[in-house]
Amino acid sequence: MISKARTTLTNLSKICFTSLGTLIRDLQTEQDVSSETLCSGLCSESTLDRIKNNTLTPSVLLAGALLNRLGICEQSLIRYGDPEEQEILRLKYELLSYSDSTSQDYLKKLARLRELCEKSTIPYLKQTYLLFYLRTLPQSSQKQAQTFAALRLTLRDFDPEKIDEYRLTCNERILVRDLL
User: Number of C-alpha atoms within 13 angstroms, CB side, residue 24?
Assistant: First the structure.
């Protein structure tokens, strides 16, 4: 099965969405990542087990975050999921491409992302919005505290001294980079 994961990995854009759980399971096994580490702050271990057993189809956003922690970029999942999930992922990657977080276009896209994310109770989505909102703030101790708070939405006991012990999503990697 691990060899199937490697083959699928080479072309994630052609993956059958129903085999996503199998891919996650095989990558987790191959990389020897505990379920607790993989799903920390994203979902419960029982939800992860149902995903890996293909009895639950995860949202595109949850699947993307889990794949991130396994070293896979979720960008190729943009065309899957419902229109709202697609828009969130599209906005995320558009905002990542901006070097000027004060431009009107950036702020317009950020406002739309806020509309989409503030309806949700999912910590990962709130973190996605905060990641891009924090880029608009000047460097300060308050911004640093807000960045830590954003990280702790999904990594409740985050400790920068133990950075090598974490499996990070794309959002978490960017937030950590902004702290350092």
Answer: 31
Fold that domain 2-77 belongs to in CATH? 434 Repressor (Amino-terminal Domain) (1.10.260)
Distance from the Cα of residue 72 to its chain's centroid: 10
In degrees rounded to 5, what are phi and psi of residue 152? -75, -5
Residue 21 is which amino acid? Answer: G
- Is the distance from CB of 85 to CB of 111 less than 8 angstroms? no
| 148-176 b/e (C-beta count within 10 Å ≥ 16 → b) | eebbebbbeebeeeeeeebbbbbbbebbb
Tens digit of each residue's pLDDT (9 = 90 or more) over 74-131: 887 877 788 999 999 999 999 999 999 999 999 999 999 999 998 888 999 999 999 9
Matching residue, tokens 């709130």: 126
- In tens, the pLDDT along 127-155 reads 999 999 999 999 999 999 999 999 999 99
Amino acid sitting at position 55: T
Question: What is the pTM assigned to this prediction?
Answer: 0.82
